[in-house]
């Protein structure tokens, strides 16, 4: 009998822990995201969605701006996870690659701009602590992280674009054959 009681307590405890986590989100990041989404959408409405769309599409015509500038700006200004919403301005065929570039940049930016992804700071601070113990400066590693991050997101964006293109071609051939 005691085993069943402990199993029931564990089972309900699982859902209580989930509820506590959910409440942490409701009182933590969700209000910030809602306000940020409202702000960005307001700016877009004030400027005009067509104008913003045109500027964004012109910016994404160039592979460098599509996979370096746009993801870096979105992570810097909107932070993680809101930065992915910039993808709505990218042509459908480039969206997976834009997402890959943006998601790959949320860690490298934290050394110079911790606001961009505070949840990733533990990784950077872990490395930084080791450098501090060696008596080394943190500035150079933060700059190197940032630069290497820009290079990596550019490469990942291009690779993901190529893979996505090939998968879309195969899908089109498969649909024609069916």
Q: Please state roughly what percent of the residues sit in beta strands, choosing from under 5%, 5-15%, 15-25%, 25-35%, 35-45% or over 45%.
A: under 5%
Mean model confidence by pLDDT: 84
Low-pLDDT stretches are: none
- Described by the principal axes of the CA atoms, the overall outline is extended
Secondary structure category: mainly alpha
How much helix is in the residues?
Answer: over 70%
β-strand number: 0
Organism: Paratissierella segnis
Protein name: PTS glucitol/sorbitol transporter subunit IIC
InterPro entries: PTS_IID_sorb
Transmembrane segments: 22-47, 67-87, 141-163
Written description of the protein model:
The protein is an all-alpha fold. The chain is built from 7 helices and no strands. The chain has helices spanning 2-27, 29-47, 49-59, 63-78, 95-105, 121-133, 139-177. The longest helix is centred in the C-terminal third of the chain and has 39 residues, at 139-177.
SSE layout and pairings?
Blueprint: H1 2-27, H2 29-47, H3 49-59, H4 63-78, H5 95-105, H6 121-133, H7 139-177
